Amino acid sequence: MPRKAGRPRRADAPPAPPKSPVVKGEFGVFGHKWALAILQDVAFSKLTRFGEILRSNPGLTPRVLSRRLAEMCEQGILTKEGDRQHARYRLTPKGEDAAFILLALLRYGVRHGPTDPAMDDPARKSLSPASEPEA
Predict the structure, then answer these.
(1) If both were cysteines, with which of 17, 41, 55, 72 could 78 make a disulfide (CB 3.0 to 4.6 Å apart)?
(2) Concatenated DSSP letters of 20-80
């Protein structure tokens, strides 16, 4: 199959893997703005009420939060319990699995994030490759 015009591929570069419909399809809602922040609030900060999540995210509007929560419930990541006035959002088993995405991003950020000394975090040292035990 002829290559498309453009930047030539390095001779030692492996061929690009085919795009997975699993990755494209399942990442769905997490590609939307605020979705990962909402997941973080519910999974790790244990915020379950609409107002709690809204206050935890400056810049997030009630309209967008309402949409994201509905999408996350629709996709089976969260469940909504209670009535309209006293609703609480909880992770489903699928949502608990999705929380590992955040853990991976956190680990990546701690290991490879900003190198500005003013932003230095003691957690970065504990997760650096040098601190990992030898196998």
Answers:
(1) 72
(2) PHHHHHHTGGGGSTTHHHHHHHHHTS---SHHHHHHHSTT--HHHHHHHHHHHHHTTSEEE
The whole-angstrom distance between residue 86's C-alpha and the CA centroid of its chain comes to 26
Is 50 exceeded by the pLDDT of residue 35? yes
Residue pair 103/123 in contact (Cβ under 8 Å)? The answer is no
On whether the 28-109 domain is CATH 3.30.830.10, my answer is: no
Q: What are residue 81's DSSP bridge partners?
A: 88
- Cα 95 to Cα 10: distance, rounded to the nearest angstrom: 40
CA 30-34-37 angle, 5° bins: 90
Q: Does the pLDDT value for residue 84 go beyond 50?
A: yes
Run of H or E residues at 104: helix 93-112
